[in-house]
Amino acid sequence: MSDKRYDIAIVGGGVAGMTAAIYASRANLSVCLLEREVCGGLANWTYVIENYPSYPSINGLELMMKIKEHVLANTVDVVEVDEVVGMELEGPLKRITTSESAYEAKAVVLCTGREPVRLSLPVEWENIHYCSVCDGAAYKDKDVLVVGGGNSAFDESLYLVGLGVRSITIIEALDACIAHQKTQQLARETGRISVMASTKLASLKPFGKSAEVALVNTKTSESTTKMVNGVFVFIGQKPNTKILSDVVELDGNGYIVASADMETNIDGVYAAGDVVSKRYRQITTAMADGTIAALSAEKYLRRQ
Amino acid sequence: MNSSMTILEEETMDAFIADKDCMVLFYKKICPHCKVLSTVLVKCKEAAPKLFYAGVDSEAQPALMERFGVERVPTLLAFKDGQLRAKKTGLMNPRETMDFFSKA
């Protein structure tokens, strides 16, 4: 396995990583972008994006493919479906090992993003899903449970209604759903989506292609049961920093601690996007992070 | 999916699988897992150039979905000598995909 050498290695091909790649390449630096799946990150999973300036409404995967085309129009080596398995980031030359190869770079930008939180139940059932676009079509004329009351849960529920799902029950553990009011209103107007706040999924008993779910009211402890054909889970995200825990400084929730210039605690190592410890996580803020990280890395390399 | 993939329809499916060992990916255009598995197949093709592979747009070809019992995407079908040998729904990495095909 021979190492490939670059000025900058970007780990993670979400919108932050892709933006950093564009800026780094335009600074005439050699750049590789390493992505364990395909470029786009979590935005790929968003059916409709309506807060990205210049596109009033666009599918997430479609928008990310447009940004990837922009990356490829620059001189960037994009490596997809190759997972980073090790990193040595101290010292002037950083080393990154993937499942297929090894890379050396003078600077690294960490854009590993976040991933969906999985349902924590002591039972396996093949009809538990995390992507309505991928798995929703099988539930036409069937009944599903959606776990989570945020924007993703409501957006994906509306998509399921469009596929012809007969009924959708959204449960949210908090006292009220946090999705945009406009989206909640749209969901209620379909007549096929019902919402249960202060409700948790206590258990799930599969019976082949359907399952009995027990729903518990968190205030009254009252329990009800329901038969559903599938469960879709949208209960938030957690940072992809498992491999970074002994590499860079993380906050108490596992996010990377970075300065305003996106510097981590290691010289020549920067972070950008959802994986950074911060308040707001949007496509636009990820782009800003990626821009700043690439410019800071370029400045660092000029000083070397 | 990816530009080098042969896209099959009801009329072209049988002729494609009839005389070759191949993998056929049932996908949806806006499905991220499908995009990943499509990229995995490109890597498989690089590693095994003699391998044939193709895609079926699940939304455009409901009859093929029903014929091969595909309910969700991405689903990968392995054909050998024109016969369906194996079917798997969900993500696989390149090594797992080649294992899936060789054991089919």
Explain what you see.
The complex is a heterodimer of chains A (304) and B (104). Chain A is elongated, with a radius of gyration of 21 Å. Helix content of chain A is 24%, strand content 29%. By secondary structure, chain A is of the alpha/beta class. The model of chain A has no long low-confidence stretch (mean pLDDT 95). Chain B contains four helices and five strands. In chain B, helix 2 links the parallel strand 2 and strand 3. Chains A and B meet through helix 3 of A and helix 2 of B.
Topology:
The complex is a heterodimer of chains A (304) and B (104).
Chain A: E1 3-11, H1 15-26, E2 31-34, H2 60-73, E3 76-79, E4 84-88, E5 94-98, E6 102-110, E7 114-116, E8 128-129, H3 132-135, E9 143-147, H4 151-163, E10 167-171, H5 181-189, E11 193-196, E12 199-207, E13 210-217, E14 223-228, E15 230-233, E16 237-239, E17 269-271, H6 283-303
Parallel strand pairs in A: 1-2, 1-6, 2-3, 6-17, 8-15, 9-10, 9-15, 10-11
Antiparallel strand pairs in A: 4-5, 5-6, 7-16, 12-13, 13-14
Helix pairs in contact in A: 1-2, 1-6, 4-5
Chain B: E1 6-7, H1 10-18, E2 22-27, H2 32-47, E3 52-57, H3 62-67, E4 75-80, E5 83-89, H4 94-103
Helix pairs in contact in B: 2-4
- Strand count, sense and closure of the main sheet of chain B? 5 strands, mixed
- Principal-axes shape call of chain A: elongated
Main sheet makeup of chain A: 7 strands, mixed
Which band does the percent of strand residues of chain A land in?
Answer: 25-35%
Amino-to-carboxy terminus distance of chain A: 28 Å
- Anisotropy-based shape of chain B: globular
Radius of gyration of chain A: 21 Å
Low-pLDDT stretches of chain A are none
Order of helices and strands of chain A: EHEHEEEEEEHEHEHEEEEEEEH
Span of the ends, CA to CA of chain B: 24 Å
Please report the total strand number of chain A as a whole number.
17
Count of alpha and pi helical runs of chain A: 6
